[in-house]
Amino acid sequence: MIGKRRRLGKLINELQIGDSYTATKTINDRDLLLYLGLTDDSNPLYLQHDYASQTPYNQPIVPSVMLFGMVSSIISMHLPGPGSHITRDEMSFPKSVHHYSEVNLNIEIIAIDQDAHQVIMSVVAYDTDGDEVVRGKLNVCPSYEPESITGHSLQNFF
Questions:
Q1: Which of 65, 145, 68, 63 has its CA nearest to residue 107?
Q2: Which of 53, 126, 149, 155 shows a CA-CA span of 20 to 30 A to 43?
C-alpha cells in the first residue's frame, strides 16, 4: 500500500440532495459464516435448519446487523465513499431475509448540513418479491479534504 494513492470519497461540497446509489447483494454461505465466525454468534435461528423450521420464519434468517453491514459498506465505499463515517442510524427490518436471498439496497442523500459536516441519507432495501426488508435513515460525515503534508513538514525550516 505504500506509494499507492487512495481515492477519497466525495467531499461535502461535492454532494447534492438526490445523489443516490443502488446495489444488489446476494446472501451466500461464505458471507454468513464469515460474519457469524467473526462475531462468535451461534444463534440457532441463523444457522440451524431444524430449529428455524419450527419457528414462524420456517428457515434460517440473515442477522439484521449483517444487513446493516451491507449498508455501511455502500456508505464507506461508494456514497459518499472512502473517508466517510456513519455517526447515527435509525434502522428497521420489517421482513426477515433468508439465506441465498438477493437484496436490492438503495441509499439517497435527503439533506445536507454544511455547518455540521453531515449528510442525512435514506436507506431502503427490497427482496426479490419487492417486499421491504430494510428501512432507515443515517447521519453520515463525508470525507474531509486532507491537509497539505508539505505545509506542516516544512514548519521547522521557516
A1: 68
A2: 126
107 phi, psi to nearest 5 deg: -120, 150
Return the bridge partners of 102, or none: 26
Q: How far is CA 40 from the centre of its chain?
A: 21
pLDDT tens, position by position, 35-60? 888 999 889 999 999 999 999 999 99
Residue type, 103: V
DSSP codes of every residue in 36-86: HHHHT---HHHH-HHHHTTSTT-S-B--HHHHHHHHHHHHHHTSS-TT-EE
List % helix, strand, coil for the chain (3-state, nearest 5). Answer: 30, 30, 40
Owner of C-alpha cell 491537509: 147
Task: Please tell me whether residue 135 adopts helix, strand or coil conformation.
Answer: strand
- What the block records as the C-alpha cell of 148 is 497539505
Residue pLDDT, tens place only, 14-35: 999 999 999 999 999 898 989 8
Query: Which residues sit opposite 104 in a β-bridge?
Result: 24, 126
Domain ranges of the chain: 12-27+62-145
**Site of grid cell 516544512:** 154
